[in-house]
Structure formats: C-alpha cells, structure tokens
Amino acid sequence: MTKLYDLIAANPQLEYVDAATGQHFGVSDLTHTLDLEPQHGLAFLYLDNSIAAIEALLNFLDSPFTIALLSPKLNIAYKQQLEQLYRPCYIYDPSRTAVEGFEATVRLFKNTVQAGYSIHPDIKVLLSTSGTTGSPKFVKLSEDNLVQNALSIIDYLPIQHHDVTPLTLPVFYSYGLSVFTTNSIAGGQVVCTSRDVVQKEFWEDFNRYGYTSVAGVPYVYEMLHRIGFCKKEYASLRYMTQAGGRLSPVLAKTFGEYMAVRDKRFYIMYGQTEATARMAYLPPEALLSKAGSIGIPVKNGRFDISPDTQELVYTGPNVFGGYATGTADLQTFDHHPVLYTGDMAEKDADGYYYITGRMKRFVKLFGTRVNLDEVEAILKNTLNGGTVACIGVEDKYLLVQHLGALDSSAIKQLLSEKLQLHVSVFRIQQVDEFLLTPNGKVDYTAMQQMGLAEKV
C-alpha cells in the first residue's frame, strides 16, 4: 500500500517555506528530526501551521504512529480530558511547558506509562468531529483514505510543480489537511504560515512569495469581499478554492466572474471529515450555469440519493473507518466505503447535485463544524441544568433560546471561550416557552423556520 509520506517525499520540487523567517526546507530537512520510538502507538499533535508544526507532522507521518490532529487553541481542560481518556504515547504541544504524567523530550512530551491497549494497523489519522468542544469523538482515517482523497483532488485541481501555496487553513481541519497533502504531493513551495487574509502581513507575503492559489471557507470569502479583493489584481494567482460550508450565491457569482474574466479558476467544493475531506466539486466553467450546485463526484466517488429520505449517500475509497469515542474503538477499522452524509439532495438532468437541506444537528461557523447537541450540553452543565435549545441559521450564526432571565453577554462569552469562536456568531433569545413537537420534544424544525424568518 502506498504511504502518504512516500508520495510527499517523492516530489523533487517540494519545498516548505517558513513565512516567519523566509527559510526554505526540503522534506529531508524536516524528517527524522524527532527521536521517536519505533513502535505503533498514539500521538496527539496540537498543530498550528508553523514550520515547527509541519516538521512534527512529517515526522509522525513517516512513522508507525497513529496521529490525532488537534487545535492548539483547544481549551486546556478539554486537552487534559482527551489525554486522560486516550493516554497517548506522545504529545506535541508547544503551548505547554509540562504535562502531568509525561516527561519532556526535545519538542515532545513522552508518556511515562505504557498505554496498555492496541490500535488497528489501518488507523493512521484521527480527526475531531467538532474541533472546538473537546468531544472525544474522532473520525478514523487510513493511509489509503488520505492517499485516495489527495489523488482525487489532484485529478481536478490545476496543481503544478511551480506553485506557491500558503497554508491558510489549519492542518488539523480536513480541508486544511487536504491543502497540505495535495500540494505536498504535486505542488512546489508550501508556505507555512498562520497569518490570515485580514492581516496586512498575509498580503505582504502574498507579494513576496507570489502565491498561486488561495483556499478558504465562506467566512474567508466574506472577509476578502469586505476588504475589496475583487478591486485589485494578483498576477501570480491562478486559482481559488472554497469549501467548509455553503457560500452565498452572490459571493459565488462575484468571485466566479472575477476569476473567469482573468482566465483564472474558482472551485466550489463539497465534503465532510468522514470522507477525508472531498466528495464533490463544481467545475469552474459550470459555476454560473449551475449556481448553487455542489457539482459532481470526485474521481472514484459516486453519489446516490435515498428514495425514502432524499439523503445524499456517497461511496468511495476515501470514506472513513468509523468513529472513535474511546480507546476500545481504536481496535477496529470498518472497511465499508459508504457514507450517509446527513444532507438531503437532488440531482439535475446533467448529473449535478444540489443540497436541499441538512438532516444532522450541526452548524458550520467560520468553516468549523459545531455539534449543536454538544453546545446544549455545555450550556446546560454550566447553567446547572438550565433549559436551552440551539440551532444554526444558514451556517451564519448559532441561535440559543432559553427560558427565564439569563445574562446574554455571559452566555456569549462562555460559548466564545469554549468554542474558540467570535462572540458575533452567537444570538441569545429569551422565550416564554419552547416550540415542541407532538411527542413533547423541542421542535428544531420550527425553531429553524422562525430563525430564518427573523433573519429576513
């Protein structure tokens, strides 16, 4: 079986650039630099997009270890809970100087006690299903999942060996990880940076290095639009990609037209962590004629629509091997390549797919998927069982309804700290009673309709 690291190492043009210093590194400069034990175990990597984080990632990709990729901004209490539950062999987390039960080595913390459980050999990467709430639930991905996902993306994106690609999305996020893997395999220079599009330093780097592509979730494109991106010219830019939630039709048209008249390409894509990232893309030439579509399946992928529920069902070699909520789940890997997406869809006469609704209780805010049930649990625990209900409104904001008098500012601040999201994405609403279904449960569908109506 082909390993992801081997494909990366086989790219002779590949260089990693440290945006902070301007230094260039080959793959060989960034591997075999950590003194890892030659064993199969679990490692927790809290990764930003710095050159040091990419070095740690490459070291562990070229090792027998299973690696959990996590946000370095995760609340410290959540970090400790996860580490107590999974008992990893190694932890990479530059934000801490000590971890209880671990000894500090060069840039790593090593567990002083053997984990005492086995891990299925096919599990290579664990990605969080929430990213922010500290849920112990991970998506289990194999080497083949990672490789097949990367190759399917390379099949349609115009990645070239002279490209200069910034890591503008976190590599612990499936979309950001796919930008890293695809450009490491087929690209040229990968610029390691944690700067974002609203910082002037990002644009200084853009001009200094000559970025050839930009990847972003809807919020990134909203920010680009706000700062006047489409009023300027970018000679080095060849294409842009968007995923991580639905982009507004107005912005899709704006960026699509901007890129098209300059003979550049704008790709709208659809995916989920459970598919290692990518399931579909909208060819740039169809962006205006198929407005609102998620496009067509990636190479070696297939869509079906359930006749009973209209749920979109994906089949492909990049489908995950199940969830892990504890160490017992790390002993199995399900090789069933079918994913029930939780999205409802329809297909037009030309074979293009359109999402018509969402069956699951998630919302994507700034490209981060947030489990609404987990948010409710956080609030109920903090409020000592207080009655709350949460919905997401068009992946734009999270609406919290509550009974009784509560401090709305305090709730917003709590959620901002717990989820690492800006307070502006939260709406707090006091109600006299909840809308209920006939069987006495909270009627989230009615809440959703009310939230949309109020938004209008």
Structure in words:
With about 450 residues, the protein is an alpha/beta fold. The protein has two domains: about 5-355, Rossmann fold (3-Layer(aba) Sandwich); about 360-455, ANL, C-terminal domain (GMP Synthetase, Chain A, domain 3, 2-Layer Sandwich). Helices cover about 25% and strands about 25% of the residues. It contains eleven helices and 26 strands. It has an eight-stranded mixed β-sheet with strand order 6-7-5-3-4-8-9-19. Strands 12-13-14-15-16 form a five-stranded mixed β-sheet. Helix 10 links the parallel strand 25 and strand 26 (about 425-430). The protein starts with a helix and ends with a helix. This is Acyl-CoA synthetase (AMP-forming)/AMP-acid ligase II. It comes from Chitinophaga rupis. Belongs to the ATP-dependent AMP-binding enzyme family. Keywords: Ligase. GO terms for molecular function: medium-chain fatty acid-CoA ligase activity.
